[in-house]
Structure formats: structure tokens, C-alpha cells
Amino acid sequence: MADADKKNPNEEELIDITQPDALEDVDDDTVAQINAAGMTSGDDEIETLRAERDDMRDRFMRALADAENSRKRSDRDRREAEQYGGSKLARDMLPVYDNLRRALDAATDEQRAKASALLEGVELTLRELLNVFGKHGIEPVVPEVGDAFDPQLHQAMFEAPLPETKAGDIIQVMTEGFLLHDRLLRPAQVGVSSNTG
């Protein structure tokens, strides 16, 4: 007889509960004990694993949301840097525009006749500066005398009563304003009517 077939009389025979007919010869109390022991520890373990899974899923979803928010923030920051990054340089270039405009406005007819080539060069320089501004999203805000004062685009430098005007009408334009895309780079400086009647 082989050693595997020999049974020790002092050993209890183990039941393989994975076999379909294994519990047929076992009494009901033993089956209840096996079920209680197996189910309690297994249920606890399953509940622990479910709790860990839910915790990990929650952490994963939060990390995913944080990553998405970071991506959106960096995209927005990149777009803003692209659009508005040159605002300091643009603001520094506005006095150059103002001075070229003043030079043209100050020239009399006699000076225009004598120095037409010089003034034409200044006009071309001013036009080229405006073209460069346009390429970079810088647009002039040019109010007209008689327009209504808009505090979003204009800066009132003085108020004066002027006949035949309404309160809040622009009566003089001192400097043009500029927008950089949709942001105000510099307000137009204007004089405003203070008529009350």
C-alpha cells in the first residue's frame, strides 16, 4: 500500500468544502459553524476592500480633477501671456505715438510747404507705428467732440460749461486712448461739458 493511502487513525478527516457533495455527510451544526466562520471573516475582508476601493476611487477622482484644473489654469495663463504680455512695452510706445501726432498737428501750412518731405516721413512713421500696433492687437480709442463720456474708455481731464452741449458730452479730445485686445491700455483723455440745463 502506498504511503498516501495510509490514514493515521488519530487524525480527523478534513472536508474539502469546494467539492459539491462535501457537506452531505456533515451535521447541520458543523455546517453552520463553517458558514459563520467563513462568512464573518470573508465579509469583513470584503467590506474592508470595498472601503479601500472607494477611498482610492475618491482620491483618484480628486487628483484627476486637480490635474484638469491645473491644465485649464495653465492654458488660460498662457493665452493671457500671449495676448497681454506685451502691454508694458505697448504702454511705453504710446508717448512715441503721441509725439508724432503732436508734431503733425503743430505743423502750420507754411511749414508743410517748406518741409513737406520731412512731414511726409513723420506721417509714414506714424502710419507704420499704427500698423505694428494693429498686428499686436492694439487699437486706438478715438472719441469725437460731441460723443457721450464713457468712463470705461475715457478719462475726464476737466469739466467746463459749454453752451449748446449736454452734461457729459465730450467737448475736447486731448489724447487718444488705446485698447489691447479687449483691455484698456490707456483711456482717452478728454474734456467734458458740465452744463446742467
UniProtKB/TrEMBL annotation:
**Under the cellular component aspect of Gene Ontology, which terms does the record hold?**
cytoplasm
UniProt keywords, alphabetically:
Chaperone, Cytoplasm, Stress response
A GO BP entry = protein folding
Query: Compositionally biased, Basic and acidic residues: which spans?
Result: 1-10, 68-82
InterPro entries (UniProt xref): GrpE, GrpE_CC, GrpE_head
Q: What would be an example GO MF term here?
A: protein homodimerization activity
Per UniProt, subcellular location reads as:
Cytoplasm
> Do you know which Pfam families this protein is assigned to?
GrpE
The UniProt similarity line reads: Belongs to the GrpE family.
Per the entry, what this protein does is: Participates actively in the response to hyperosmotic and heat shock by preventing the aggregation of stress-denatured proteins, in association with DnaK and GrpE. It is the nucleotide exchange factor for DnaK and may function as a thermosensor. Unfolded proteins bind initially to DnaJ; upon interaction with the DnaJ-bound protein, DnaK hydrolyzes its bound ATP, resulting in the formation of a stable complex. GrpE releases ADP from DnaK; ATP binding to DnaK triggers the release of the substrate protein, thus completing the reaction cycle.
Complex and partners: Homodimer.
Task: Indicate what this protein is called per its UniProt record.
Answer: Protein GrpE
Give the organism the record lists.
Harenicola maris
